[in-house]
Amino acid sequence: MSNRLKSTENDSSPIPMRGILQQWDCVPLCVDLDGTLITTDSLIQGILEFLRRNPLNIFPTAVWLLSGRAVLKQRIGDRIVMNAASLPYNRDLLGYLKDEYARGRQLVLCTAANERIAGSVAGHLGIFVTVFSSNAKENLKGRNKMKVLEQQFGTGQFDYAGNSWADLAVWRRSRSAIVVNASPWTVLALRLFGVHVSRSFSGSGPQE
């Protein structure tokens, strides 16, 4: 279900009253990959590269898809090795994450991308203490991702940076949402559900 670079234990002890900002910084920040940390979809990139090598690869790709997205991601990940350094990162978000990391905040990469690409990105950036990702048995998206983070940190005990409608299930159980290039419908849904949005990122930079 996940590729964990480092396990994290829940701390049930109360947080001292040291001001709202200091308490907020104690909350882990969980970050999505596709469409959030990077501006593209790693699965689509992998499929396109697989088909570019041989157009007849469309047939095994279709068979894998029939077995489920988790299987498709695993099979593509087994055959296509992506260079994490060449991926199109959201520079504004990445700069913010590096600042948070420098301040000592715990950063977690939590993505529906396959464990190979997730591990590659985490290793390249060197700012994530834990990685949760998809494997051949589970597609870590939506409610599946929400369950993993809730089990690991507790309801309302983590912040989450995401970009899509599928992330609503996670945002609703988070303490605060960081929204990256989200559609107007997704932003509207966050408001309707009463989710606190602490930051928004687009191509032009952060908005508080």
- At the fourth CATH level, what is the homologous superfamily of the largest domain? HAD superfamily/HAD-like
Number of domains: 2
CATH class categorisation of the largest domain: Alpha Beta
Strands of the widest sheet, in order across it, are 3-2-1-4-5-6-7
Largest sheet: number of strands, sense, barrel closure: 7 strands, mixed
Give a summary of the structure in a few sentences:
With 208 residues, this protein is an alpha/beta fold. The protein has helices spanning 20-25, 42-53, 58-66, 69-79, 91-102, 115-125, 143-153, 168-171, 184-192; strands spanning 29-31, 107-114, 130-134, 159-162, 176-180, 197-202, 205-207.
Question: What characteristics describe this protein?
Answer:
alpha/beta; 2 domains; 9 helices; Rossmann fold; seven-stranded mixed sheet; disordered C terminus; 208 residues
Question: How is this structure best described in words?
Answer:
Helix 2 crosses helix 4. The chain has 2 domains: 20-40 and 88-207, HAD superfamily/HAD-like (Rossmann fold, 3-Layer(aba) Sandwich); 42-84, no CATH class. The protein has helices at 20-25, 42-53, 58-66, 69-79, 91-102, 115-125, 143-153, 168-171, 184-192, and strands at 29-31, 107-114, 130-134, 159-162, 176-180, 197-202, 205-207. It is globular. A 7-stranded mixed beta sheet has the order 3-2-1-4-5-6-7, with helices on both faces. Mean pLDDT is 86; it is low at 1-24 and 204-208. The protein has 208 residues and is α/β, with parallel strands linked by helices. The protein is 41% helix and 16% strand.
